Amino acid sequence: MEKILVVGGAGYIGSHMVKALLDKSYPVLVLDNLSTGHRELLTGGEFVQGSLGDRALLDRLFTDNKISAVMHFAAFSLVGESVQNPLKYYRNNITETISLIEAMLRHSVHRFIFSSTAAVFGEPERTPIDEDHPCRPTNPYGSTKLCVERILADCDTAHGLKSICLRYFNAAGADASGTIGEMHDPESHLIPLVLKCALARKPIKIFGTDYPTPDSTCIRDYVHVTDLAQAHLLALQALLEGSGSCAYNLGNSIGYSVRQVIDLAGKVTGKAIQTIEEQRRAGDPAILVADSAKIKRELHWQPMYEDLEKIIATAWKWHSLKP
Question: 152 and which of 4, 123, 163, 212 could share a cystine (Cβ 3.0–4.6 Å)?
Fold first, then answer.
């Protein structure tokens, strides 16, 4: 079998993708510069440390390996940092991705699966958000992801590069084994922050308690990282079978408020979690919930973890077991 190249495969979602590919007996080649990834999260496959901007390295990888498809998880993804340092995001998320696409085309590899984001939509006009919702990102991170989506569409027209863009809402949870999970530094995602506060017996900050929602806190759609990996496997199979280019939203189509997440985390951990109320953060929409009907209909994706309590339980197993 030809190999699957996973760029950014030592990161949170990338490492779960590598495990899912290996579980299905795909040969895996991982490229990661380890700027935010962790070598110890990889459960197998061949690992190469390096940058997407290294043309000679990319040419060597594509020359020495028969690669049937590329999966991209190598973007920077902190919204606040993207606002403070936009050039870092445009350089890594766009320029280096162009370098990868150019290498693929030089070596006649024409299947690309892109880790995109709900941030491409910006402030929602309606919820749940389907694929036809207008894309008006409100931060550089979302802008870079949308730019790559458009680059991929143009490369399909010009070069026949087929791509599937998967727009995640809020990735959460950890592998059921408890052996790999979320390990960001700094951490910005709500569920691991709450669980770390439970472990440290410290209060968690709630940013904004005046939203037009039932309990006045933001509502988000959480999707388990293993379910994300399964969606990528289905996208890969579709491309291998000749699918055209398209984009899909990935979420559970169920919204949970910040307070609901904290309450469920307390239930899972058996610990009382105190809160501190802070002012809203700029750019945080009140409600972000996905409409994932398209990928369920076309690729037959069916999430295994639709209950948030079960998602949090897998994350708790990881955080309570890891050193």
Answer: 163
- Residue 237 clears pLDDT 90, i.e. is over it: yes
**Residue 213: count of CB within 10 angstroms of its CB:** 17
Q: Which pTM was predicted?
A: 0.96
10 Å Cβ neighbour count for 211?
Answer: 18
| Active-site option among 26, 141, 168, 222 | 141
Please give the average per-residue pLDDT across 253-279, as a whole number: 96
Please tell me whether residues 26 and 157 are part of one structural domain: yes
Question: Residue 262: which pLDDT band, with cuts at 50, 70 and 90?
Answer: very high
Residues 155 and 167 both lie in one domain: yes
Residue spans of alpha helices (H) in the chain: 12-23, 55-64, 79-84, 86-89, 96-106, 140-159, 190-200, 225-240, 258-269, 293-298, 308-321
Number of Cβ within 10 Å of residue 203's Cβ equals 12
User: What does the block give as tokens for 5?
Assistant: 């190249």
Range of the domain at 119: 3-171+222-250
256 noted as active-site residue: no
Q: Over the stretch 135-166, which tens digit does the pLDDT of each residue have?
A: 999 999 999 999 999 999 999 999 999 999 99
